[in-house]
Amino acid sequence: MDPFLTLLHSFSSSLSDAELSSLKFLCREKIGKRKLESVRSGGELFSILLEQQLIASHEVSFLEGLLGSIKREDLVSQLKQFVEEGEVNAPDDQPDVHEKPFEVICENVGRDWKILMRKLGFSEVKMDRVVAANPFNLREQLAQSLREWQKWKGRDAKVTDLIKALRGCNMNLVADRVEQ
C-alpha cells in the first residue's frame, strides 16, 4: 500500500467537520465550487487534490500550507517526518501494521484496548478521535490507535514496547502470543 495514501487517510480520519469546511474554503481557488460542494470527507478532498496534481508524495508544500492554515501543527509535523524519512521506513523490530503483532493484539484485546493504549503513552484526545471516526467498531478503534501510536513513535515503535505494555496491563496471554 502506498505510504502517502495511508498518511492522507490518517489525516482524513482525524479532521473535524469544521476543519474539513476550512480546508474546502481554502481550496476554492484551485477546485471548482460545484466539485467542492460534493466533498463530504477529507479523503474525497485529498483525492481531488491528487487528481489535479496539487499534492503528491514528492510535492507536499500545498498540503503543508493547508494544514498550517487550519492550525493542525500535529499533522504538519507528521507530513514533515514523512518527507524527511522519504516514506515510512520500518526498521526490523518495528511492528508492521499488516503483520502478526498488530493482528494478534486486535484479535485478543477487545474492550480493554484503551488501558493498553494509555500504557503505551497514547493521549486521550487521540483515542477520542479514533473512537469518533469508528464509533461502532471496537476492533477498528484498536487497529487505528495502534497505527497512530506507531506513527507517533516513528522509529521508536518497537514490538518489545507492545509486549511490555501488554504485560503491564496483565494481558499476559496476548503478550505471549505476540512473542510467538
UniProtKB/TrEMBL annotation:
Can self-associate. Component of the AIM2 PANoptosome complex, a multiprotein complex that drives inflammatory cell death (PANoptosis). Component of the death-induced signaling complex (DISC) composed of cell surface receptor FAS/CD95 or TNFRSF1A, adapter protein FADD and the CASP8 protease; recruitment of CASP8 to the complex is required for processing of CASP8 into the p18 and p10 subunits. Interacts (via death domain) with FAS (via death domain). It holds the Pfam family Death. It is found in: Cytoplasm. GO terms for biological process: extrinsic apoptotic signaling pathway; innate immune response; positive regulation of cytokine production; positive regulation of extrinsic apoptotic signaling pathway; positive regulation of innate immune response. Residues 98-180 form the Death domain. Its main location: cytoplasm. The keyword Cell inner membrane does not apply. GO terms for molecular function: caspase binding; death receptor binding; protein-macromolecule adaptor activity. This is FAS-associated death domain protein. Keywords: Apoptosis, Cytoplasm, Immunity, Innate immunity, Phosphoprotein. One of its GO terms (cellular component) is CD95 death-inducing signaling complex.
